[in-house]
Amino acid sequence: MIWNYCLRSILVLQEARGLQRCRKLGLAAPVPLMVDASEGILVVSRLGGTVARQAIEEASSPSVAASIASSIGQSVAMMHGSHLVHGDLTTSNFMVLADHLATGSPPSMPSLPSTSPSSVAASDASAADGEARVAPIDLGLCSQSHAPEDKAVDLYVLRRALDSTHPGAGPLWEAVMAAYLQTGGKEAAAVLARYEEVQMRGRKRLAFG
Q: Is 124 a catalytic residue?
């Protein structure tokens, strides 16, 4: 009971802090309105939209699904650029906002508030072609890390989630990676190099146990 209580409190605080970090980056994450770690309660603002998993499954065309995947890639690159690791990247942990769903002509994602190289790349990427606007959610497992390994594992979890949830996920992953690289620049390229190693280890583990 004590362990469950402590774990619940930690997850609530991590969620609130992760959402605040995302908001500071310019991502459309929910706003934490009330936190009571002792009771395991977190109240956040309501997002109008639908879960990205459902939005991709119900997309009217492959290009719409790719637009959603591209926006997820942008969001992850922005988080990783600020050394925020989500910890549970799946299409169930992003929301596609209602303005995109309703208009069919989605607004561009907000740019990073700093003038770092990664933020400039993010701004340029978001201004081009008007990608679907998505919001990261469920950050209870998020962490702060500068290590490319941790960010690569984050991407590996997302790839596995895409493969298990969306049949023929190859084009979605390509859209994620293209946006991730365009937004994250050299840092993203270093993470992707490490991702290849993580993926190879994962395949060996599946093959040999």
A: no
pLDDT beyond 60 at 135: yes
| Residue 88 maps to a domain | yes
Q: Among residues 88, 129, 150, 163, which one is catalytic? A: 88
Q: What would the 3-class secondary structure string for the chain be?
A: CHHHHHHHHHHHHHHHHHHHHHHHCCCCCCCEEEEECCCCEEEECCCCEEEHHHHHHCCCCHHHHHHHHHHHHHHHHHHHHCCEECCCCCHHHEEEEHHHHHHCCCCCCCCCCCCCHHHHHHHHHHHCCCCCCEEECCCCCCEECCCHHHHHHHHHHHHHHHHHHCCCCHHHHHHHHHHHHHHHHHHHHHHHHHHHHHHHHHHHHHHHC
Is residue 19 in a domain? no
Q: Which of 43-57, 115-129, 150-164 has the lowest mean pLDDT?
A: 115-129
Read off the CATH number of the domain in which 147 is found: 1.10.510.10
